[in-house]
Every structure is written in structure tokens, then in C-alpha cells.
């Protein structure tokens, strides 16, 4: 049975675009911008894309729809192209900043969402001021300056948000507005430098902030630093060179960690609704390091192993993936949906409006380079072979990244969001995060099927009515290339977890070792239920119906689910995932779980191999040891995976001794 595919003119044009050249990418961006026209207000200042709510007002949400596409539009113009709908944004800038206009965006208050949107506008003025600013009336220029400058005396969150004010003032200074506050900009930059922790990485806030996610790299901080290094070279050369050096250092880990062989980046952290902005780092790197219009004496040499062809490949493969392989990312009219691979509100944060996904337009910064630039004239190259089958320890992020065996993923401990964020246990607390299999989020709080419990040890203390997963870790640290952490699902339950990365001998397996202790001091006799999940995977068969159990033994390589004793496995057209119990004395039972729909970010219908067990021993250590397998079929041989499955990973000696 073949699934019937619904198409639309937008999807047909996207699919037919090879996305190999600057003109191809410009055409795809134009297609996205054209789709917004029918959703744009009469004077252009607001773009209304839906009715779902956020913690901020609807006017700010419509401002998001207006401002975020500007990342692409301004870059398109800077690189020498034109856009027939440019007047919509010119008119919108004038109307939205005019207090007397019906489409006025509203004055900014402390910690206002409007501040976020100032970044795109500031960038646009910096790179495309002659086109966007110069034709405006003196009154419009005054209004825009007053509106952007209105944030200079307001309180801002002590996070990457400070970059938004930097770019507002940078843009105003580039167009000669008297409202540019360069002292404020320098103070913000000096404070943002206190977030830097080394090796190219910056926290998203002051000391005590522990998450290092895409905001620290491709969504915000690294991209902002790279753009600043290009645009402020004459005014601030020393800081600009420091920012370029940070990018050079970050590349050493970023190339493996957040890029991969399968075109999709590793899914980790919040705001994944921004989609192809995950490769914006490469776009900004190309813009910042291009020597064609660089300053005299600036070192624009690319860090090893990068070449212009490698950067081009990393960036364009990601854009092609979203344009060609993820039709659910856009609705039939070409509007980005709220979700990831498909519309999915379970993923969203409280700040995601219908216009939020257009942060993805940061990926189009590469269009700011002209057709004859080093980036666009280079022959696209594949992923550097020197980075294949590598494993890297990330001391700042407390993560270990790997692409051994062709599966790109990371093991993680010690990261958590510093403030409440929806589904934070899923976005930061899982044990592993994959580029091929993504991660899952809960859709409700009762059954295991609702939990989205992939790559985690789920704990229930109430007879399996509700489940808890790792959210806050304590004492997280690296022990060589192993990650060790302590966490407490309940006050009287202590869990110590070691994550052991794959080896060349067993490249598709990683190990998890858990020490659980139930304290009896409270006087209760708690019974713990556990469910440990491997990766989640596409859960449908060739006939698009739910996978059946395979009829053969464990050696059956056919499509379907398998569970027996302490083993569970799922095989589908997406690959093979599974989990084996290697615990020294505890017995757990394998199960192939059909997850509730729309838990997984990549597969709306997913299956999950789990190991389940129950324990009631108190004041003694319970040891659980799990071996987890994952092979995406787009990088693996469908016929030979059983050989890898039959290998047993070796538990490190020092952990074996502890479990005795």
C-alpha cells in the first residue's frame, strides 16, 4: 500500500528547486516571503498567521511575523538581489513605529517581547539601510529611531536578549540616526562578554546558567558575534577579532556536535520550532569570514577542517532537507507550521507564536554574500572525512558527541534550563539526543505511552499512575569520556547515572549504568517502577499501519517489533533501535511500546523499545545496566546490522567492580 501524497503549488516549487546556488536559495526564500503577503496588514506592519496564544500580547506576535522574515529579506538585498514585495516591509517599518498609525506596534516596556524583534530590524538597517531606510520620509526615520531607541532605558533579561539591543543600536548608528546609543551598546557588549566560558562557548546568562544549547551557538550568541565582527570591524576591531577567534574554537566541536551526515542537526534543547536556524552558524560564518569586502589586515582564514565548499555543503544540505524532505514543516500555502517535522503543539514553549518559526530565516544570512563570493563560487563538498567516526568530549556542555557507525548523537548530563520552560525534562534532561531519531515530549501525565520516555529512565512511585524523568542533575561531571550525575526523582530516592559512550568495537551501542537507592527513613515502603527507553523510531510498516511483532527469533531482520526477556527492539524503514538488559542481578522485561501519537518530534507515529521492572528494596544499592542500540538506515546497511546487534558492549572495569 502506498500512502497518498497531498501536494500544493508551494511544495511542488520547493521540491523542484535544487537549492545548489545562490539564485536557487534566493528563489526559495522568495517563495517563503510571497506566502506571507496574503497574511499582511494593509500598511504592512503586522503579519497575522494564526490564533494560538503566548504569554505576550497578540500585537507583539504579529510583530514577530513581520520582523523575523527580515533576516532573510535584508540578506537577500545585501547580496545584490531585489524582491518585488520589498515595499511591504518599507511601509511596515514606517507604520509600525508611528504612534499615530492604527498598526503601531506599541511602546516598549521592561522585558518586552518587542525587544526581541529589534534585532532583525537592527541587522536589516546595518546591511541594507540604503534600500530599507534611505527611501523613507524624515518622519518615518524619526519614528523608527524613537521606537528602536526606546529600549535603551528599559530593563532587559540578563540573557542573549542583550544582543537584541546591541543590534538595534548598531543598526541605528549605521544609518546615522541620532537615537543610536553607542555607550549603551558598549556596556551591553562588555556585559555579554562576561557570559563567555572558553573554547568558543558562552552561557546564555551569568554564572549559574548551565544550559548550552542552540542559543549559545546558532540561534543567538555565536551568530550575533559573527555578524558583529563583520559589521563593526572598523569601529571595534579588537573585539571583532576576538569574536572571530571564538568561532574558530567553536568549530572544533560544533562540526561534529551540531552538524551531521544526515542533513538534520542533533535535536536538543528549546525553541526547535526555529528549525533550519540550527545551521545559521554556518551562514553567519560564511558572511563574517568572506574576504571579498573585508578590512585590511584582518585574518579571514578558515579554521581546519573547513573549506568554503565544506561550509557551503553543511549549510545547503540542511536547507534542502527542510525544503525537500519535511513537507509538514509548511502548510499547503507555504506558511511555517508550529512544530518541527510536522505541526505539533506539544513541543512549543510559552513564547512561541504563529510568527515565531520565522527565526528560521537566520539560515538565509548566506544570501548577504554576492554571487561572486568565495562561499557561492565554491564547489559544494561533503562532510569532512577526517571527522567521520569521531567521539568528542565537551567539557563545558557536559556532553559527549559521537558519529561512530554513522549515527550522530550526544550523551548529556548536567544541563537544565535555569527557569521554568515547558517540557524541560525532555528538552534538557534526557540521557541522549539524536540527529536521526530526535527526541520525544510528553503529551499527558498518566500512562507510559503518553510520557515520550525515549532515552531516559522513567520512575513511578505511585503504582505507575504517573512517571518522572531526570530534570535537575546534581554533581554532574566527566570521568574521562564517561558522564556521571546524581539526581533525585523523589526526596527519598537517589539515582546515580553513568553514561558510557560507544567504542570502535561496538560503534552502535552506548551503555547506561544506574545506581538506585530507596531511603526508608520516612517510614514508608515505597515500591518503584522503572521504564528505560532506547531511541524512539518510526512505528509504521510498509503498509503504513502499525508495526507487527516479527514472527522469527531475535535474529529476524525483518520489519517489526521484537521483545523477549530483557531485550526489546524495533525495526522499520527508519532504521533499527533497541535495548538490552545487562544488569548484574535485577531482572527487567523488554517491551516494544507503541507511543501516543505526536510525542516524537520527527515521527508522529513512533514505537519505543523499553525495559520495565519494579523494586522495593530499601537502604541498599540497586544496579541497572542497559545497552542501547541505534542505526539509522539512511547511513547504514540494512542487511548487515544484525552483526552489530549481536555484539555486546564491554562495561568499564571500574563500573563492574562497583556493581558487585
UniProtKB/TrEMBL annotation:
It comes from the Eukaryota. Residues 21-381, 390-655 form the DUF2264 domain. InterPro entries: DUF2264_C, DUF2264_N, UCP014753. This is DUF2264 domain-containing protein. It comes from Collybiopsis confluens. The lineage of its organism: Eukaryota, Fungi, Dikarya, Basidiomycota, Agaricomycotina.
Amino acid at each position: 500500500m502506498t500512502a497518498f501524497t497531498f501536494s500544493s503549488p508551494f511544495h511542488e516549487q520547493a521540491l523542484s528547486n535544487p537549492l545548489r546556488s545562490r539564485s536557487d536559495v534566493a528563489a526559495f526564500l522568495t517563495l517563503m516571503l510571497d506566502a506571507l503577503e496574503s497574511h499582511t496588514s494593509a500598511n504592512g506592519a503586522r503579519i497575522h498567521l494564526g490564533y494560538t496564544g503566548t504569554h505576550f500580547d497578540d500585537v507583539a506576535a504579529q510583530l514577530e511575523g513581520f520582523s523575523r522574515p527580515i533576516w532573510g529579506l535584508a540578506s537577500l538585498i545585501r547580496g545584490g538581489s531585489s524582491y518585488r514585495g520589498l515595499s511591504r516591509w518599507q511601509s511596515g517599518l514606517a507604520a509600525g513605529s508611528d504612534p499615530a498609525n492604527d498598526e503601531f506596534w506599541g511602546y516598549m516596556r521592561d522585558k518586552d517581547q518587542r525587544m526581541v524583534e529589534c534585532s532583525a530590524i537592527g541587522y536589516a538597517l546595518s546591511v541594507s539601510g540604503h534600500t530599507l531606510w534611505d527611501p523613507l520620509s524624515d518622519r518615518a526615520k524619526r519614528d523608527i529611531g524613537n521606537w528602536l531607541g526606546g529600549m535603551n532605558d528599559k530593563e532587559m533579561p540578563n540573557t542573549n536578549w542583550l544582543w537584541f539591543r546591541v543590534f538595534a543600536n548598531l543598526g541605528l548608528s549605521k544609518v546615522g540616526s541620532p537615537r543610536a546609543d553607542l555607550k549603551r551598546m558598549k556596556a551591553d557588549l562588555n556585559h555579554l562578554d562576561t557570559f563567555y566560558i572558553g573554547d568558543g562557548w558562552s552561557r546564555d546568562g551569568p554564572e549559574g546558567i548551565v544550559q548550552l544549547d542552540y542559543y549559545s551557538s546558532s540561534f543567538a550568541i555565536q551568530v550575533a558575534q559573527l555578524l558583529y565582527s563583520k559589521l563593526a570591524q572598523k569601529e571595534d576591531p579588537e573585539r571583532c577579532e576576538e569574536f572571530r577567534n571564538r568561532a574558530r574554537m567553536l568549530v572544533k566541536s560544533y562540526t561534529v556536535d551540531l552538524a551531521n551526515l544526515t542533513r538534520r542537526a542533533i535535536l536538543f534543547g528549546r525553541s526547535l520550532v526555529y528549525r533550519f536556524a540550527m545551521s545559521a552558524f554556518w551562514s553567519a560564518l560564511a558572511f563574517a569570514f568572506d574576504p571579498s569586502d573585508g578590512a585590511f589586515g584582518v585574518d579571514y582564514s578558515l579554521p581546519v577542517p573547513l573549506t568554503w565548499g565544506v561550509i557551503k555543503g553543511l549549510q545547503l544540505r540542511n536547507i534542502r532537507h527542510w525544503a525537500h524532505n519535511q513537507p509538514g514543516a509548511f502548510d499547503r500555502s507555504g506558511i511555517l507550521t508550529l512544530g518541527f517535522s510536522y505541526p505539533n503543539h506539544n513541543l512549543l514553549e510559552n513564547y512561541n507564536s504563529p510568527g515565531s518559526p520565522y527565526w528560521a530565516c537566520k539560515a538565509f544570512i548566506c544570501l548577504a554574500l554576492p554571487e561572486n563570493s568565495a562561499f557561492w563560487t565554491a564547489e559544494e563538498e561533503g562532510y569532512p572525512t577526517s571527522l567521520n567516526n569521531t567521539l568528542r568530549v565537551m567539557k563545558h556542555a557536559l556532553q559527549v558527541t559521537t558519529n561512530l557507525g554513522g549515527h550522530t548523537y550526544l550523551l548529556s548530563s548536567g544541563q537544565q534550563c535555569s527557569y521554568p520552560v515547558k517540557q524541560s525534562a525532555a528538552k534538557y534532561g534526557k540521557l541522549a539526543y539524536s540527529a536521526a531519531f530526535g527526541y520525544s515530549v510528553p503529551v499527558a501525565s498518566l500512562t507510559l505511552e503518553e510520557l515520550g520516555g525515549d532515552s531516559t529512565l522513567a520512575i513511578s512511585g505511585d503504582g505507575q499512575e504517573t512517571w518522572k524523568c531526570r530534570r535537575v542533575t546534581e554533581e554532574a561531571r566527566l570521568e574521562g569520556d564517561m558522564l556521571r550525575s546524581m539526581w533525585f526523582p523523589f526526596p527519598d530516592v537517589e539515582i546515580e547515572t553513568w553514561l558510557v559512550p560507544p567504542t570502535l568495537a561496538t560503534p552502535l551501542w552506548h551503555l547506561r549504568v544506574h545506581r538506585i537507592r530507596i531511603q526508608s527513613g520516612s517510614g514508608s515502603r515505597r515500591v518503584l517502577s522503572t521504564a528505560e527507553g532506547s531511541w524512539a523510531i518510526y512505528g509504521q510498516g510498509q503498509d503504513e499501519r502499525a508495526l507487527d511483532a516479527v514472527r522469527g527469533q531475535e535474529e529476524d531482520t525483518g520489519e517489526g517489533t521484537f521483545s523477549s526477556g530483557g531485550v526489546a527492539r524495533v525495526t522499520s524503514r527508519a532504521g533499527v533501535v533497541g535495548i538490552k538488559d545487562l544488569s548484574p542481578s535485577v531482572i527487567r522485561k523488554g517491551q516494544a511500546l507503541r507511543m501516543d501519537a505526536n510525542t516524537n518530534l520527527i515521527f508522529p507515529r513512533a514505537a519505543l523499545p523499553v525495559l520495565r521492572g519494579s523494586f522495593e528494596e530499601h537502604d541498599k544499592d540497586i544496579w541497572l545496566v542497559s545497552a542501547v542500540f541505534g542505526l539509522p538506515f539512511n547511513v547504514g546497511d540494512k542487511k548487515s546490522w544484525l552483526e552489530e546487534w549481536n555484539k555486546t558492549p564491554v562495561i568499564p572495569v571500574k563500573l563492574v567492580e562497583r556493581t558487585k
